[in-house]
Write a structure and sequence with these properties.
Largest sheet: 2 strands, parallel
Strand order of the largest sheet: 1-2
Number of helices: 6
Oligomer: single chain
Helix content: 25-40%
Order of helices and strands: HEHHEHHH
């Protein structure tokens, strides 16, 4: 959702278009496969300057220190994340990890705590936490926060317009 917002706002998005939209993500993924292999090859970063790139939190540590990063960390309830992953795997006819849902939530929580501690120590990372539910509830104000954080003249109305609450299917509470 955040990558869609950034693209709609006018920020160039680095994507390879390899992962097409599907039933689990009707608007598409906007991923960039080389980002997943940054630890082995970070040469792609030279072409990423000034662009938005989706990087999974566990891979932030692989980003080289010679660049400055502005990280928009989209935070979602971990039970919803696990539920969403399970629903996606079920639709594909795949089995997930042989770990109970709550155990997966606990694992993700520990990983996020470690990532947060690490990020707090990195002088080349600036961080903006954005709540997933906050974006759904108030996309315009969250788009404005993102725009101010990035310091770019993005189209806030266009960013807010791409938020589709009907796609928020895995909810807790």
């Amino acid at each position: 959702m955040m990558m869609q917002m950034l693209a709609a706002g006018g920020l160039a998005v680095l994507t390879d278009q390899l992962r097409a939209s599907d039933e689990d993500n009707l608007k598409g993924y906007l991923e960039f496969e080389p980002a997943k292999a940054t630890k082995r090859d970070s040469s792609w970063l030279a072409n990423a300057v000034g662009k938005s790139v989706k990087v999974v939190y566990m891979l932030l540590k692989d980003l080289p220190a010679e660049y400055e990063y502005r990280v928009i960390f989209l935070r979602r309830d971990l039970a919803e994340v696990v539920g969403s992953q399970q629903a996606m795997l079920a639709r594909r006819g795949e089995s997930g990890a042989r770990v109970a849902s709550q155990e997966m939530v606990d694992i993700f929580a520990r990983q996020l705590e470690q990532t947060d501690r690490w990020l707090a120590e990195q002088p080349n990372f600036r961080l903006l936490d954005v709540g997933y539910r906050d974006v759904i509830a108030d996309p315009r104000n969250q788009a404005l926060r993102v725009t101010e954080f990035l310091g770019l003249p993005l189209d806030v109305a266009a960013m807010a317009a791409v938020v589709d609450p009907s796609l928020y299917r895995q909810r807790t509470g």
